[in-house]
Amino acid sequence: MENYANISGDSQVVSFQIDANSIKVRFKNNHVYLYDLRHPGPERLEKMKELARAGWGLNTYIESEVKSDFSSKVF
Asked: What's the pTM value of the predicted model, to 2 decimals?
């Protein structure tokens, strides 16, 4: 997984792994969630990828737009 830049300094996101049709996100509590084309859908998935690469806003976006709409809890 790639470290999340956390530009704001207060994100719960620690790292992420982007694949063609999904993103895995690891949080400070060590839980890893998989988001894909089905959950939360292609538009939200692309936004999450963009925010992950930018290192800013991913945690806020997940909390406000995605909530519990993930494909699976990996760990």
From this structure: 0.92
